Amino acid sequence: MGLLGNDCAQCHATAKWTTPEFRHPSPVSQSCAQCHQAPPSHYMMHFKMVSMSVAKMEKAEVSQCFLCHQTTSWNDIKGVGFYKHH
User: Fold this and answer.
1) CA gap 10, 5 in Å, rounded
2) Is residue 62 part of a domain?
3) Is the residue at 63 inside a domain?
4) How far apart are alpha carbons 22 and 40 in whole angstroms?
5) Which of the two ends of the chain, N or C, has the fewest CB atoms closer than 10 A to its terminal CB?
6) Please, what's the b/e burial string for 51-69 (b: 16 or more CB within 10 A of its CB; e: otherwise)?
7) HEC states along 11-40?
8) Tens of pLDDT, residues 31-51
9) Which range of residues forms the domain containing residue 64?
């Protein structure tokens, strides 16, 4: 996406995507959308019928990732733990 420049190989290798030098923003950060986009299911009824129910968040907006997700992993849901979606 060009947020950190155009030379991806400067930080990433083809063997793995993680970069030990990368420092993820604070777990209390509320600006997830700067780098992450919600999955297509979050823009469908699945979000209201399943995702919000699992996370016990009745009034969450798709842009409020921080209400349900933790920075450890996208499927580490607050108060639930690692949730297997499929």
Assistant:
1) 9
2) yes
3) yes
4) 26
5) C
6) bbeebebeebeeeebbebb
7) CCCCCCCCCCCCCCCCCCCCCHHHCCCCCH
8) 887 788 888 888 888 888 888
9) 29-86
2, two tokens: 């060009």
Residues 85 and 56: their CA atoms lie apart, in Å, by: 15
Q: Is residue 76 part of a domain?
A: yes
Residue-wise pLDDT tens digits, 62-81: 888 888 888 788 888 888 88
Q: pLDDT tens for residues 5-31?
A: 788 777 776 676 666 666 777 767 778
Domain count, the chain: 1
Could you count the other beta carbons within 10 Å of the beta carbon of residue 77?
19
Q: Please give the radius of gyration of the chain, using alpha carbons only, rounded to the nearest integer.
A: 15
